[in-house]
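subagent[fold] <- orchestrator: predict structure for attached chain, return tokens only, no commentary.
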Amino acid sequence: MGKIIAIANQKGGVGKTTTSINLAAALGVLEKKVLLIDADPQANASSGLGIDVDAVEYGTYQVLENSIAAKDAIVKTSSPNVDIIPAHIDLVAIEIELVDKEEREYMLKKAVEKIKDQYDYILIDCAPSLGLITLNSLVAADAVIIPIQCEYFALEGLGKLLNTIKSIQNLHNSDLNIEGLLLTMFDSRLRLSNQVVDEVRKHFSSMVFDTIIRRNTRLGEAPSYGESIIAYDATSKGAVNYLNLAQELLKKNS
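subagent[fold] -> orchestrator:
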């Protein structure tokens, strides 16, 4: 039975999609069967794995509106052992369309239940909001990884996200756990980066991954080639960081 992990933070630009793509690819290289669900209307996880977003016929939108089964929206990627349910800009409309549906928070959970046992890990790249799509993702998930950028406003909004997770645990998904806080975009030359790491570790100690994702030019370049950092430059700091994260995740779940 696969473990479902949502990668969520309502702040934009903290490394959610970068983490989704590269953690999926790293787990695939470590011979785990992975499905990535792109639950962000910007569809960056899809294009970042080489999917032509404009040509997407079936994706997360159709799965959420229940017009097709999740298995029929799955597309193979060029990354070993990694499949994806891609997104398209039309996913924006789902927030409005689901509003008056019964059990609207459970649409993704119901869809994914049927394919869960085909994968070791299912990762969900969430939108930078706490809207209905993200709510669906967190209700469907067993755990959540929260990327935190090593910058001044890092902890701003984290309390709000943790409260949202707590209310989801109380109302919809009592099994939802926090897999860990992931420090991203770390620059060891900056005093501020080091201060943020110290603050986060001080306040959240065991909830924080040991692995830190360093700021890395190659990480930023890889998506424009439709590749994960592992495929684009396996020797880069970014690739090493995400392979370390994947190994830490597997050790945690062994």
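orchestrator: received. Logging for downstream: The mean pLDDT is 92. The beta strands are 3-7, 34-39, 75-76, 82-85, 121-126, 143-149, 177-184.
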